[in-house]
Amino acid sequence: MSRRGGGPVMVLNVAEKLSVAKSCREGENTAFEVVDVCRAVDVCRAVKHNLYIRRSHFSALIDSSKSQREEPSQLFVRVVDARQEIDLRIGASFTRFQTMLLKDRFSIDSTGDKERSRVISYGPCQFPTLGLIVERYWEIQAHEPEEFWTINCSHESEDGLATKAENKYVMFYNLFIGFFSLIC
């Protein structure tokens, strides 16, 4: 991290300001973990002074948000910590419930590990993630190829023939090709 050597801790020993950028509550939580490490290093400095810490919230909707720096918010961190705790407890409860309910009805042993195959896991993030995967699979299955063109240019001069082929992944559709043929 540092050209002078010593890694990130060496950089923190000489740093006076820390700017943390985040885009959501989860990012705020991660930012606080970074801040905790930085403050621990700050306490251990030979020359005592407080590290100036600010955070920016990035937003695609509000361009000026990146220039507005404020103190990191412990409230966002508490919200994320509470959600993680709830997810963990719900996941453990549902895993236990569905394992007990379904263990005798299904033979699930794809790993070969008998102990592991006896648990039917549940996690609050698994269903939305599975939904995204299934939805994308359906989109791929329903895809119908469309006609497309590519543009290849060549120029012949005394020096020889020069060709320029567009990237093979760039596709041009009817409207663009029609417009292009009118202006040429």
From TrEMBL:
Which keywords annotate this record?
DNA-binding, Isomerase, Topoisomerase
Pfam families recorded for this chain?
A: Topoisom_bac
Write the Enzyme Commission number(s) for this entry: 5.6.2.1
Q: Which InterPro entries match?
A: Topo_IA (IPR000380), Topo_IA_2 (IPR003601), Topo_IA_cen (IPR013497), Topo_IA_cen_sub1 (IPR013824), Topo_IA_cen_sub2 (IPR013825), Topo_IA_core_domain (IPR023405)
Any single GO molecular-function term of the entry would be:
DNA binding
Q: Gene3D superfamilies in the record, alphabetically? A: Topoisomerase I, domain 2, Topoisomerase I, domain 3
Q: Which GO terms describe its biological process?
A: DNA topological change
Q: Does the keyword DNA-binding apply?
A: yes
Q: Which reaction does it catalyse?
A: ATP-independent breakage of single-stranded DNA, followed by passage and rejoining
Q: What class of enzyme is it?
A: isomerase
Q: Topo IA-type catalytic domain spans which residues?
A: 73-184
Q: Family, per the entry?
A: Belongs to the type IA topoisomerase family.
* Function (record text): Introduces a single-strand break via transesterification at a target site in duplex DNA. Releases the supercoiling and torsional tension of DNA introduced during the DNA replication and transcription by transiently cleaving and rejoining one strand of the DNA duplex. The scissile phosphodiester is attacked by the catalytic tyrosine of the enzyme, resulting in the formation of a DNA-(5'-phosphotyrosyl)-enzyme intermediate and the expulsion of a 3'-OH DNA strand.
Name the chain's protein. DNA topoisomerase
The organism of origin for this protein = Brassica napus
